[in-house]
Amino acid sequence: MKALLLAVLCVCVCGLAAGTEEDERLPNKCEVCKFLTTELQEALEKTGRSKEVLEVGEVLDTGKRRRKIKYNTSETRLTEAVDNICERILQYNVHAERPGSLRYAKGSSQTMTTLKNLVNKGVKVDLGMPYELWDEPSAEVTNMKKQCETMLEQYEEVVEDWYFHHQDQRLERFLCENHILKTSEQTDCLKEMWKGDTGDKGGAEAADEEQGTTHDAGEL
User: Whose CA is closest to 34, among 174, 189, 141, 181?
Assistant: First the structure.
């Protein structure tokens, strides 16, 4: 009976693996801007309370002193935050079970966690790639990183304007809503917030353990 159950699970998982390719899509402009601003805002918040003082300019023969500026309002802070900011997008994974922009989040997806747990139980899972590559950035996430780099290059001056003159506004609103996205419909993803799992114990796997049943590919 146990062997039969494992065989059924294997068939279901193989069906799921085949379906993941069909579920792939490219991130839209709203999603790219949302995660770009999320990462940049977070990077800036980490250094926002610094009391460091920078000295800029050259000491002239006249003895004029170098100008001192606060690090948390300096161009240096912005430059350091922006540097490689789009690389952080590669930390995201596709959570295909979630709707809209919630599809992209850090951490392992429910589907991938379920598949890894099955592998640990001895179930054969074929995703068309070695197990060691399962955690590599997906094509969707890699595409979002490339779009992030292009967007940042195109709107570099807008980001600088926000940093020096408009930090009383959320970067997401200033950059995405006011400059990049042109209609209210395009900004819908900015309102999407993840409220956490609502299932018991761990979703599909918990149900399997409690009821001794399996899910078809659509349920997983």
Answer: 189
Alpha-carbon dihedral 166, 168, 171, 177, rounded to 10 degrees:
-80
Burial string for 161-179 (b: 16+ CB within 10 Å, else e) reads ebbeeeeeeebbebbbbee
Q: What does the block give as tokens for 5?
A: 């159950």
Whether 89 contacts 35, CB under 8 Å? yes
Cα dihedral 149/153/155/161 (nearest 10): 110
CA distance 75 to 101: 31
Whether pTM > 0.90 for this model: the answer is no
The tens-digit pLDDT sequence of the chain (220 residues) is 444 344 434 444 444 444 444 456 899 999 999 999 999 999 999 876 655 655 555 555 555 556 677 777 788 889 999 999 999 999 999 998 889 999 999 988 777 777 878 887 888 877 777 766 677 788 999 999 999 999 999 999 999 999 999 999 999 999 999 999 977 768 889 999 877 754 333 433 433 443 333 333 333 4
